[in-house]
Specification:
heterodimer, A: alpha+beta, Alpha-Beta Plaits, four-stranded antiparallel sheet, B: Aspartate Aminotransferase, domain 1, globular
């Protein structure tokens, strides 16, 4: 396997399960642990792998969080276009994801807060008030069925025969 | 009073010697099974969803005996793109109830009583019985670990007699995971041409090839007109329960197969055919994903066997590892039974696939990675216990 192939496979493997160790990856790809560790380190160093996080089933968490998707229309700046305002918005810890969108609005933010009021407060006092923000439209999330490719409820497993030639 | 109500060619069919072992496995709870010859993945959703849609639309009728023309077109298109083999959907392709039915049809279509059919062992359990049920004579050619379980063309040629009608090939192979090289395939093709034999190429595992895929024997000179190409949806698309396979081949043989199929089966379930159509149209990525996962599991399981001292070749296709257990001093059956009782891990004794499978066990890696890892630890424990005995 070439170094590039190893890296491509690692992205695939860690994309499915970010907790696998270099040794786990190595045995799956039939390469040495050293090779796998080096490739992961390189991907991290080059900012291709940005980080690792867990996926929660929010309805089962001890403390419930409020999440909202906010569509934002902004006025792009003459220099820097949407990037400048997007960068400023992305620095708020309440903003968990931020995307530039095609279509009827410009930026899509995912906001996390402890209560509905907290999110509303952030939207009215910080977001809507920011220079260049023309309008916002807030959608609260009611229930999560799937995130990052994982279903919140496992599919029912239908039993296989124990031995099949 | 007659001696028996059952026809002699059926009553003489050997009962699978491992039936008792299977029964034993089925009575045990909490078994980790490496004995399952079908994908652990559930059929990709896009396929299941189209089956549901097919029912909703009221598709509840018979289809053409050969299968819906849409599916046959998709199959022929797929076979052309994947295997570089061109067949006419109108008369060179038939949709069957899995490859199992296609095998049955082709045997009945081509064999006269006493005709011999050569196949390679260790192999899938149905070949010899299928040949016998069609009043043919099965002729097994052994394959060996030293040849990576590929069929040696010289051994094949030695088995040819003037009664030989056909050769069955199954590569990638269940249970060994073996594949043929291009040279071996070419030599086998030459033998088929030399002795005017039909080749039945069961390629149900071809999509699950982890290194470069050897071209189908049907692509070699003089072969397309004498090869029946068998494939299906069970393994590649995790659709075992849908029961859809197909045969492509010369018009004359497909036509004969169609006659038997039309009288005995009529047609494959219309909804399963719709699902199969969707598989070819929109589930290639799902297939890739599953193949990638099998490949990773293969690397893990093969490495684990070799590390614990059970030599295991790297299977280039299918989803079976076939480690050599002779160093334990146990027979395949003893190994499988003792492992099951001691560690609750089920594997299939190599002898289930022919006598030359003695000394080997078949371990399916169509099982979750966690299951494989736990099973490997348990087999290691079992080996340690054997040593201290």
């Amino acid at each position: 396997m070439t170094k590039e192939e190893i890296k491509r496979e690692i992205l695939r493997i860690l994309g499915e399960d970010g907790r696998l160790s270099a040794a786990d990856i190595a045995e799956r790809l039939a390469v040495s642990t050293h090779e796998a560790a080096a490739a992961v380190a390189e991907l991290e160093k080059n900012n291709i792998i940005i980080g690792y996080s867990a996926i929660f089933n929010e309805s089962e968490l001890p403390e419930s969080k409020v999440k909202a998707i906010i569509e934002v229309k902004v006025r792009p700046e003459r220099e820097g276009g949407f990037d400048k305002i997007a960068r400023r918005l992305s620095k708020f810890p309440q903003v968990s994801s931020l995307y530039l969108m095609s279509g009827g609005f410009d930026l899509m933010l995912e906001i996390k807060g402890s209560t509905l009021q907290e999110v509303a407060e952030f939207v009215s006092s910080k977001l809507a008030a920011m220079d260049g923000v023309l309008s916002t439209s807030t959608h609260f999330l009611l229930k999560k069925y799937k995130e990052a490719g994982k279903l919140m409820e496992e599919e029912e497993y239908s039993e296989r025969l124990k031995i099949v030639p | 009073m007659k001696n028996s109500y059952v026809a002699p060619h059926i009553s003489s069919l050997p009962k699978s010697g491992i039936r008792d072992f299977f029964e034993l496995v089925n009575t045990m709870e909490d078994v980790i099974s490496l004995g399952i010859g079908e994908p652990d993945f559930i059929t990709p959703w896009t396929i299941r969803e189209s089956a549901i849609y097919s029912y909703e639309k009221g598709n509840t009728h018979y289809t053409s005996n050969l299968g819906t023309i849409q599916l046959r077109k998709e199959i022929c298109n797929y076979v052309k793109n994947t295997y570089n083999l061109e067949y006419h959907p109108e008369n060179e392709c038939i949709v069957t109830v899995g490859v199992s039915e296609a095998l049955d049809l082709v045997m009945r279509a081509i064999l006269s009583p006493g005709d011999e059919v050569i196949y390679h062992e260790p192999c899938y359990v149905s070949y010899a019985p299928e040949i016998r049920m069609a009043h043919g004579i099965p002729v097994a050619v052994s394959t060996y670990e030293k040849n990576a379980f590929a069929l040696d063309p010289d051994d094949l040629e030695k088995a040819v007699t003037d009664r030989t009608k056909a050769i069955v090939l199954n590569f990638p192979c269940n249970p060994t995971g073996a594949v043929l090289t291009q040279e071996q395939t070419e030599k086998i093709a030459q033998i088929a041409v030399k002795y005017d034999l039909i080749v039945i190429s069961d390629q149900i595992y071809s999509e699950l090839t982890y290194e470069e895929m050897t071209p189908s024997i049907a692509t070699f000179p003089g072969m397309k007109d004498r090869t029946v190409f068998l494939n299906g949806f069970s393994k590649a698309f995790a659709m075992t329960g849908f029961r859809v396979g197909y045969a492509c081949g010369p018009k004359e043989i497909i036509d004969a197969m169609m006659k038997i199929h039309q009288y005995s089966i009529m047609c494959v379930s219309i909804n399963a055919q719709h699902a199969a159509c969707e598989a070819l149209k929109n589930a290639r990525q799902d297939m890739e994903m599953m193949r990638n996962e099998y490949c990773r599991r293969r690397n893990v399981i093969v490495n684990a066997f070799n590390t614990m001292g059970l030599p295991c070749l790297l299977p280039h296709g299918a989803f079976y590892a076939f480690p050599n257990i002779t160093s334990t001093g146990l027979s395949s059956m003893e190994f499988a039974k003792e492992l099951l009782i001691s560690e609750k891990v089920a594997v299939v004794p190599g002898t289930a696939f022919g006598e030359c499978g003695e000394g080997f066990i078949r371990c399916s890696y169509a099982t979750s990675m966690d299951g494989i890892k736990t099973a490997m630890e348990k087999i290691k424990t079992f080996l340690d216990k054997l040593k201290t005995k």
